[in-house]
Amino acid sequence: RSPLAMAAETASTMSHDEVNLAWRDVTYDVPVKVKVKPVKQSDVNNTHANNTQPSSDGDHKRILHGLSGHVRAGQVVAVMGPSGSGKTSLIHVLGGRRESGVSGSFVVNGKVYPNTRSLLGDLGYVTQEDVLLNSLTTKETLMFATRLRLAGRKVHGDEPGKTKSRAKAIEEIVERAIDDFDLSRAANSPIGIVGQGGISGGEKRRLVIAMECVHRPKLLLLDEPTSGLDATTALLVCNKLRDIANGEQGSGHRAAVVTSIHQPRSSIMPLFDQCVLLADGREVYAGPTYEANPDGSLTTGGVMGWLADVGYRCPMFESPPDFLLDLINTRVDEPDVNAVEGAGVNPIDAVEGGGAAIRDRSAMVRELTEWWAGSQRRRAFLADGDAIKQMRAGPHLDISGEGDDKRGARHWAVAWMARYNALFGRTFLFKLREPSGVATQAVNSVIMPLIIGSLYYNTPLTVSGAADRLRAISLIVLIQSFSAFDQLLLFPKERGLYLHESNGGMYPTSAYYASRSLVELVTIVLFALTSACISYEMFGLNDGSGAARVEFYMMIVAVTVAGASFLTMIGTMCKTFEQTNAVAATMLIVLMLFDGNWINRRNIPVYYRWLPEVSFLGYAVEGAVASDFKRHTFVCTERAVAEEGCVPLTGNQYLRMLDFDPDSTWPMFWLLVLVTACYRVVAFFALHFLWTGQTYAERWAKLVHSNA
């Protein structure tokens, strides 16, 4: 069957497992954060003369201007246009990644929706940038993606009477995906970085597409999947999209495929059933790419035929895709026609060798959009798409998005745990393969305590030695508070992966955050115990009391976890690595200054006296020092008595001198637990709401819709 023959599918032949989508009069506005340049009167006159709306009203900028189109199961629709034409924005809107500022309607198998969120579980979405964990292998990446995509769903082998386990069924799905997308040679290779020992760019693109197809999506959206690929690899990728649409990837069902593509080669164009040509967010053309003869052969009708009808025929020997983009590209430098005319040169001759237009191309785009808006071809195209409104979804297709809700809390809990287990396994494996974070914690929790311990080795129980014990404990608390410094960069580094997967419905924020936090907590606690053991023994804090050891260990573990939580919170609240480093370093230094070691609390200026109350470093220092000092009496050496008039002090007296409470160990421990919980809660909401590219209202809807 030829690709264009599939466009003739009607509701009567639609499978119960297929999706047909139409979008009508879709506009997309974004807020303008900078002062808008005043519009010239001449531009206003041109705008009114051409019956078009301005791109900006001062508060908002319009990105998409009333776009309409459709895609049926078995079709591949290409969205083309120059950079800045709105291709990516349209893909975002169709994929439900943008909801605020979007107006228009979306028809799915005869039912009208305000957005495409109802298709989330049946949607595959491939972004322009690959968001992968480079240390995992191709097979491992596919395995975890399959487990996440199919969590809470039945897979082949789950049915009664089947002896095949769920794990075996998922493994077979992964093996089939590896075979379908020709990834056998790279199956056991780490993804890595292209050019630095990783898999090739073509293999990486096929892997990303395979990850979005393991759950048999009914609608597949791709944002420039051929970017960065050579011409041959780009053709292979587009052939794969054609196979997915045709249902030839082992899934047994046809998919509706919409892809943006910048400048395809000529041999790629016939693979697209329809072409949507955009310029400055407006339709220049939307309809068949080519027209088919009765024998199935292709003609030069479609988009090229329409351009020829309006006077822009593609020159001989010029690539049709190149001609299309050159014609509407408003982002290139235009020749100064007036200057050319003044020199006595024919302006047409001046641009024949170097451009496709003899006028300002923005004016040409306006003309093309006007011609297209009033053309018979557009009316026929819209009438063809309106047939989707008459379709009826089959009984097996749940496009309401309510299927999971109807199954109750138990099903949600099972699905949540399945996603959590998959994320925990992936994160743990990634942690083992990325030793840099573990190495940082090892240096701070092993090497540094050994150095500090050698300096304060067996501090004596003297009055002068008490000051050294205070400094030693303060230093070890400070070191442990930022021993997990890698947590600072954790979420900024993985934010792209998290947003892509969570927006795609692979997991809720809570599952990702809980699994990531627990994996990190294991190494944090182990290294904290190691640091506590080293410092406790080397400082000479051991008085033979098991209670003292337990209290000191618990306090060090608590401050280490609190410090990691604090750094995690800073990491989620900041957008860039530079911001996280600057904010974290500043705040840790401020909190350190008021931990009770650097200045006596009684001498703190009145306008700073609130800071010790919020310093988790101060909680840890006071609790650890109180645990040790209250069990000792600090004596005076003969020299100290003779030269300084030293007076022996009990531990409680010394603590009172520091303005510490001798019985504060456990209260300070529970305060650390409380602030840790607060830091974690703030970090969760910051991760979900900040720096996502979406409005707070959109993120709140996703939080509620996904049950966190």
Structural summary, described in words:
- The protein is α/β, with parallel strands linked by helices.
- Helices cover 50% and strands 10% of the residues.
- The chain has 26 helices and twelve strands.
- Strands 6-7-8-3-9-10 form a six-stranded mixed β-sheet, with helices on both faces. Strands 2-1-4-5 form a four-stranded antiparallel β-sheet, sandwiched between helices. A two-stranded antiparallel ribbon has the order 11-12.
- Helix 3 crosses helix 4 (166-180), helix 19 packs parallel to helix 25 (665-689) and helix 22 (616-629) runs antiparallel to helix 25.
Based on Cα principal axes, name the global outline.
Answer: elongated
The biggest beta sheet reads:
6 strands, mixed
Provide the spatial order of strands within the biggest beta sheet. 6-7-8-3-9-10
Radius of gyration, taken over Cα atoms and rounded to an integer in Å? 33 Å
Share in β-strands: 5-15%
Q: Which characteristics define this entry?
A:
single chain, 708 residues, alpha/beta, six-stranded mixed β-sheet, four-stranded antiparallel β-sheet, 26 helices, elongated
Compact summary:
The protein is an alpha/beta fold. The chain has helices spanning 41-49, 87-94, 138-149, 166-180, 201-211, 231-246, 302-309, 320-328, 337-342, 347-352, 361-373, 376-386, 403-406, 409-433, 435-455, 463-481, 487-503, 509-538, 546-573, 577-593, 611-614, 616-629, 638-644, 651-657, 665-689, 696-705, and strands at 21-31, 60-71, 76-80, 102-108, 111-113, 123-126, 219-223, 256-260, 274-279, 282-288, 633-634, 649-650.
